[in-house]
Squalene monooxygenase
Amino acid sequence: MGSFFYIFFLISLALTSLTNGDAHLIQKTCKTTKYYDFCVSTLKSDPTSVDSDTKGLVVILVGVATANATATSTFLSSESLNATKDTALKEVLKECSHKYAYASDALRASAQDLASEFFDYANMHVMAAADYPNACHNMFRRHPKLIYPKEVARREDVLKHLCDVILDIIDYLGVN
Ligand SMILES: *[C@@H]1O[C@H](CO)[C@@H](O)[C@H](O)[C@H]1NC(C)=O
Ligand SMILES: *[C@@H]1O[C@H](CO)[C@@H](O)[C@H](O)[C@H]1NC(C)=O
């Protein structure tokens, strides 16, 4: 009789952790990062995050960052910006578009690294991805007459926040 209740207890414990445990995993994982609220809201915007383990969560964030970098690359080569007659600006926008495409490639590579649990390589690729926006920003700095567009600054900020959060979680995965 005693062991029947013990087994029942174990089963309900297992069910509880299946249904409730995962909701806390997002919070627990995001607590290891510099931007808790940003991390939680980004993960909650993906419905598959509730069924994910910590590695799954960081892979979701890498996917969001990849999409962000690609969208910015596209934005930088878009017609509206490209309509400028300023040849220096045209050239810088084109280079910036390439940098964000490289950032996207680096993030894709980091997703592969994570799948293989090569956390050092994953870290290295995300650091590279976070650095490409600097290369873009620096090109604007080198042309004193060019103004760094607000929208590009905003997108740079989002991508860097995403990369920071990802790097913190990879660190956490690497030691746990
Ligand atoms: C970029 O990331 C932000 C923050 O998570 C998100 O709100 C936005 O939808 C993302 N954009 C793309 C194109 O993925
Ligand atoms: C701008 O548009 C022209 C013509 O549509 C295209 O050839 C060029 O590659 C575009 N530049 C950028 C930066 O996308």
Summary: The mean pLDDT is 90. The first helix runs from residue 2 to 19. Residues 77, 82, 93-94, 97 surround 2-acetamido-2-deoxy-beta-D-glucopyranose (ligand 2) (CB under 6 Å). Helices lie at 2-19, 21-30, 36-44, 54-76, 79-82, 87-115, 119-142, 150-175.
